[in-house]
Amino acid sequence: DLAEMTRLPLVQLVNCSGRPADFAAAGDDRTYADLVTPEGLASVATYADGIGACKNVLIPKNADGTLGEPSPVIGDAHEAGLVVHGWTFRRENRFLPAEYRSGTDPNAPGDMVGEVGAFLAAGMDGFFTDNPDLGAEAAEPFGS
């Protein structure tokens, strides 16, 4: 068990769909969706300190591409004693929810700071980003 082999903090990555490759190789049928149920998160907490989740797992998008309501995953993970990090936040319109885009060019920079702020306001503890300068700007009002 990896948790017994290191004192480093461990994070269970959670993709938007599918299942972990190591689970598949071991014949374990659990999916990423199974890992983010209250029971799944309690199991994750036995070996990891947090989850690193695809941002759509934390706040799914509505049919129109805007951010929906936060899922229960953040609260359930905290209840299990896990920290929650979302991934991957990028500034280009193509990666942003509709309300944070600027214009129609998919490569133009939009409002990543606003998007990250919405996730932090929902209780996310940290995040992965390709734009650390904007990430720091987004986290500053939250004391992060």
Based on DSSP secondary structure assignment, what is the total number of beta strands?
Answer: 4
3D shape? globular
Order of helices and strands: HEHHHEHHEHEH
What is the oligomeric state here? single chain
Q: What is the domain total for the residues? A: 1
- Low confidence ranges: none
Placed side by side, the strands forming the largest sheet appear as 1-2-3-4
CATH homologous superfamily, by name?
A: Phosphatidylinositol (PI) phosphodiesterase
- Just name the CATH architecture: Alpha-Beta Barrel
CATH class: Alpha Beta
Beta-strand portion reads: 5-15%
Number of helices: 8
**What name is given to the CATH topology?**
TIM Barrel
Structural class: alpha/beta
Helix percentage = 25-40%
The radius of gyration over CA amounts to: 16 Å
Features:
single chain; 144 residues; alpha/beta; TIM Barrel; 4-stranded parallel β-sheet; 14% strand; globular
Short characterization:
The protein is of the alpha/beta class and 144 residues long.
Q: Can you describe this structure?
A:
- The protein has 144 residues and is an alpha/beta fold.
- The chain has one domain (2-142): Alpha-Beta Barrel (TIM Barrel), CATH 3.20.20.190.
- 34% of the residues lie in helices and 14% in strands.
- It has 8 helices and 4 strands.
- It has helices at 2-5, 21-25, 32-35, 38-44, 55-58, 73-79, 112-121, 132-139, and strands at residues 11-14, 50-54, 83-89, 126-129.
- Strands 1-2-3-4 form a 4-stranded parallel β-sheet.
- α7 crosses α8.
- The mean pLDDT is 97.
